[in-house]
Amino acid sequence: MNVQNKDSPIQVTRPLLPPLEEFYPYLQQIWDNQMLTNNGSFHQQLEQALCEYLGVRQVSLFTNGTIALLTALQALQLKGEVITTPYSFVATANALLWSGLKPVFVDIDPVTLNLDATLIEAAITPQTTALMPVHCYGYPCDVARIQEIADRHGLKVLYDAAHAFGVSADGGSVLNHGDLSVLSFHATKVFNTFEGGAIICHDAETKNHIDSLKNFGIVDEVTVTACGINGKMNEISAAFGLLQLKYYPCAKQKSQAIDARYRQGLAKVEGIHCVPGAEGGNYSYFPILVGSTYPLSRDALYQKLRAHDIYARRYFYPLISDFPMYREMAAALPVARKIAAQVICLPIYSELEPDWAERIIALIAGQDRC
Ligand code: T4K
Question: pLDDT, tens digit, for every residue of 3-40?
Fold first, then answer.
């Protein structure tokens, strides 16, 4: 497993890397089979394994989460406007713009930091065709209310579930909600395939369509029925996913322990608010909000941590709606703006040494000044 180099900075995350020697047999098999991609054996095995592990009906693997988002938007055949959150990684809105759709940004809930479902209806226009919420930091959106609104207005629901690997809500996978959900398996995610992603859908017909779209729209050797893309996951990534899946439950437990330690250690620090995690979450991010009663500004705390070789990140600052391509679509987003100005995500990953977590807590608590 990973070994933290004591001299290198502490990053916000580190990929889960199982022992290298355990990966060799998978590589040998790929060399023996000579099938490197295009729905190979490991690709099929990983789709099956993820269906079982995640408790979902259909998984279609992708080369990354962004191509999966683009393909999901194409599969839903959307036009016009899509309501989404400004408080996310830029890939969320980029996927819409790249697909010729107009993102309509709606403010977020101050507690969950997800799209505020109570504000969605006011943003619906005759051009709205879908809702694209994000389970931000793996905290489940208000899926019941979102579905109820979508049903009433005849809208599709596509969840950007890039952070929501293994997250449950109401006793089942959160990925079972909406028309489609998209996962990211990027190196920085709790479950990674170097680069990778997936679309979760609910029936075989939809999966077949998505599988065709990620393979240029090919149906068979002489039939192409859609303008598809190349979004296929290769065999090395799929094999790595299979190996990593064995280590994931244990890694999640270790991250849960770090999460608990931060919450306990930071609970009494004046001006620091730990964003609540959800039951059934995956402990993939640890966002804190730096309030006005904390002795340092958010950016000063961020710089202080950096000066101590702790590379926390301001996910998600700036707001997507502040980037030049989205400025003309910006609306009043007071909650998102306030949170983006206060947030810092602290390092959290399975191999983070507990004494580093202690050190981070002590620095934030100002104990280095004593
Ligand atoms: N939707 C949402 C809501 C997302 O958050 C994302 C991706 C997507 C869609 C798109 O999914 P993908 O197409 O990426 O599958 C990172 C990731 O690149 C991005 O995948 C992720 N969200 C986003 C939240 O974070 P950066 O620019 O912050 O990454 P970077 O390179 O600065 O890495 C962060 C830290 O992780 C580094 O300081 C060191 C560590 N790291 C990183 C890599 C790549 C490692 O230790 N090893 C590594 O290999 O965007």
Answer: 455 568 899 999 999 999 999 999 999 999 999 999 99
Q: Tell me, using a 6 A CB cutoff, whether residue 142 lines ligand 1.
A: no
List beta partners, residue 81. 102, 128
CB neighbour class for 324 (10 Å; exposed up to 12, middle 13-18, buried from 19): exposed
Question: Residue 48: which residues within 8 A CB-CB, separation 6 or more?
Answer: none
CATH for 207: 3.40.640.10
Atom of ligand 1 nearest to the CA of 95: 9
Centre of ligand 1 to C-alpha 311, Å, is: 14
The CA distances from residue 307 to 167, 212, 269, 275, in Å, are 34, 49, 20, 24
Backbone angles phi, psi at 130, to 5 degrees: -160, 165
For atom 25 of ligand 1, which residue has the closest CA?
A: 188
Whether 16 contacts 349, CB under 8 Å? yes
For residue 335, report the phi and psi dihedrals to the nearest 5 degrees.
Answer: -70, -50
Q: Is the CB of 194 under 6 A from ligand 1?
A: no
Distance between CA atoms of residues 206 and 60, nearest Å: 10
Q: Residue 94: CB within 6 Å of ligand 1?
A: no
Give dist(CA 293, CA 225) in Å, integer. Answer: 60
The rounded distance, in Å, linking the Cα atoms of 63 and 198 is: 8
Q: Answer with the one of 212, 243, 274 that is the final residue of a domain.
A: 243
Read off φ and ψ for residue 184, nearest 5 degrees: -115, 135
Q: pLDDT digits over 305-332, tens only?
A: 999 999 999 999 999 999 999 998 878 8
Number of domains making up the chain = 2
Expressed as residue numbers, the domain containing 267 is 248-365
